[in-house]
Design goal:
By secondary structure, the protein is α/β, with parallel strands linked by helices. It folds into two domains: 276 residues, Aldehyde Dehydrogenase, Chain A, domain 1, CATH 3.40.605; 187 residues, Aldehyde Dehydrogenase, Chain A, domain 2 (3-Layer(aba) Sandwich). It is 36% helix and 19% strand. The strands form four sheets. A seven-stranded mixed beta sheet has the order 13-14-15-12-11-16-17, with helices on both faces. The chain has a six-stranded mixed beta sheet with strand order 8-7-6-9-10-18, sandwiched between helices. Strands 1-3-2 form a three-stranded mixed beta sheet, with helices on one face. Helix 2 packs across helix 6, helix 9 crosses helix 10 and helix 13 runs parallel beside helix 14. The protein binds NADP nicotinamide-adenine-dinucleotide phosphate and magnesium ion (MG). NADP nicotinamide-adenine-dinucleotide phosphate binds next to helix 7 and helix 8. One of its GO terms (cellular component) is mitochondrion. It catalyses: an aldehyde + NAD(+) + H2O = a carboxylate + NADH + 2 H(+). Belongs to the aldehyde dehydrogenase family.
């Protein structure tokens, strides 16, 4: 067992070489002047494929969080403010290049620590690099406006950075979420303290090393590991953090808003859960629809905020669809994440495994029918069989609550209005999809669904140029695209009087 470090890598206070072998996390921590401030708590990192301990990671305590915030503040008020927009852009592009150069290493760490299939993990790293490069391009295109009110005034607006941004990310896409957060924050000129998820801190620590290599000034991006209740809470309650960007559960999202209200009313953006409808009409290309429905629920082992976990099929093709979907599900390769053929690896942790198995038992006891799956896969590791429930009533827990695993519910609908009503029958509103050959149906249903993204004849078609975020209880604010810049800037209005004539 090896100790991987730590908390704030680039404050200038720590010296901490992290060396990682190709598939083997090894590191040393050398503490310097502030070592007595460090929390000595460590968390064991478990390989979810075999339940063995990989290494342990220091958790940032309240004082560590404070050091990181101070470093971010010092940098924001000092050196970082003098880096030009072009300079910020170049740093992000350099970081993107380093992600690409280290693709195999970063992907292997994701597969080890999170359990995701290696092919999927490589996709995550490629998308992370694209996202960082995209926001590098935005850095020198953040512009204000001149607003003409009357001849006596000259008015303009500036889009200024918010300041020190606390960012809290989940375990389902450790580096992709890291990049979605870092990219726009840095492009807009903020500094950052980012907390990885307690289950998957390893890739964030390696990425911290790449930040140094890319040449970011000290204190601009501070990476901390730790638990939500301690490290996360210290960040959200901190009086010198100007903004929190959070991705995770709706339950914790509420706590983040509360922490803001109880502290300094820091700005908050939230990307929360979902229970997204995937709607298939009689006239859809059935092979295409089944491929996307399968991808929509089982991609990343169902651990996606936008997972298409409620599948609604029009009555004319319902029986045929269920049979064909079961056949397709049986073809998904479940197993070792390092086998390139694997589509579904283990769930991230025992807690998640137990939670999902609990929902499966709940579905059975409430009277829903298991069409396929419903049990553990194998005897070691947190693997779960891909599971389809039918005969699911709208008020059942499995139809209403986010399961975050390879488990879906399938139900019938009659017509467009029924599809929209059933699709919207949830407190969430993150994503939705419509499968049909009729453009008018696609447009009407897309307009009627209360979701931040609607996909037509596809699923999980997330792209760094397209805004992503939730209606209803799925979130506040938008990530990705130009829209994300609004999360990380504030508008200053400057109004200049052009005459000395008396005005009262
Ligand atoms: P979570 O608790 O919401 O975790 C997300 C992040 O928030 C983690 O970094 C977490 O730290 C941190 N956190 C937890 N409590 C906090 C607090 N009081 N103050 C500040 N930060 C806090 O999610 P989870 O427990 O890992 O998963 C539970 C369920 O959340 C899942 O089953 C799923 O339904 C949902 N979820 C959604 C997404 C999404 O992408 N929308 C992602 C992950 C989970 P810890 O690592 O210590 O918890
Ligand atoms: Mg949690």
């Amino acid at each position: 067992m090896t100790s991987v470090t730590l908390s704030t890598p680039i404050t200038g206070e720590y010296e901490q070489p992290i060396g990682l072998g190709q598939f083997n996390a090894r590191s040393t921590l050398r503490r310097s002047r502030v070592s007595n401030h460090l929390n000595s708590q460590k968390s064991s990192q478990i390989n979810p494929s075999n339940e063995e301990v990989l290494c342990s990671v220091y958790e940032a305590g309240e004082k560590d969080v404070d050091i990181a915030v101070q470093a971010a503040r010092k940098s924001f008020e000092g050196p970082w403010a003098h880096v030009t927009p072009e300079g910020r852009g170049k740093l992000l592009v350099k970081l993107a290049e380093l992600f690409e150069e280290n693709l195999n290493l970063l992907a292997a760490i994701e597969s080890l620590n999170n359990g995701k299939g290696i092919a999927l993990a490589k996709g995550d790293i490629t998308h992370s690099a694209s996202c960082l490069r995209y926001y590098g391009g935005w850095a020198d295109k953040i512009e204000g406006k001149v607003i003409d009110t009357d001849p006596e005034r000259f008015n303009y607006t500036r889009q200024e950075p918010i300041g020190v941004c606390g960012q809290i990310i989940p375990w389902n896409f450790p580096l992709l979420m890291w990049s979605w957060k870092i990219g726009p924050a840095i492009a807009c000129g903020n500094t950052v303290v980012i907390k990885s998820a307690e289950q998957t801190p390893l890739s964030a620590l390696v990425a911290a090393k790449l930040i140094v290599k890319a040449g970011f000034p000290p204190g601009v991006i501070n990476v901390i590991s730790g638990f939500g209740k301690t490290t996360g809470s210290a960040l959200t309650h901190h009086m010198d953090v100007d903004k929190i960007a959070f991705t995770g559960s709706t339950v914790v999202g509420r706590q983040i808003l509360k922490a803001s209200a109880e502290s300094n009313l820091k700005k908050v953006t939230l990307e929360l859960g979902g229970k997204s409808p995937n709607i298939v009409f009689n006239d859809a290309d059935i092979d295409n629809a089944i491929a996307w429905v399968n991808y929509g629920i089982y991609y990343n082992h169902g651990q996606c905020c936008c997972a298409g976990s409620r599948i609604f099929v029009q009555e004319g093709i319902y029986e045929k669809f269920v049979e064909r979907f079961k056949e397709r599900t049986a073809k998904n390769v479940v197993g070792d994440p390092f086998d390139p053929k694997t589509f579904q690896g283990p769930q991230v942790s025992k807690v998640q495994f137990d939670r999902i198995m609990g929902y499966i038992e709940q579905g059975k006891s409430e009277g829903a029918t298991i069409e396929t799956g419903g049990s553990r896969h194998g005897t070691k590791g947190y693997f779960i069989q891909p599971t389809i429930f039918s005969n699911v009533q709208p008020n059942m827990k499995i139809m209403q609550e986010e399961i975050f695993g390879p488990v879906c519910s399938i139900a019938k609908f009659t017509n467009e209005v029924d599809a929209i009503c059933q699709g919207n029958n949830t407190t969430y509103g993150l994503a939705a999809a419509v499968h049909t050959a009729n453009l008018n149906t696609a447009l009407r249903v897309s307009a009627g669904l209360k979701a931040g993204t609607v996909w037509v004849n596809t699923y999980n078609s997330v792209h760094h140029q397209l805004p992503f975020g939730g209606y209803k209880e799925s979130g506040i604010g938008r990530e990705l695209g130009e829209a994300a810049l609004a999360n990380y800037t504030q508008t200053k209005t400057v109004s200049i009087r052009l005459t000395n004539a008396p005005f009262y």
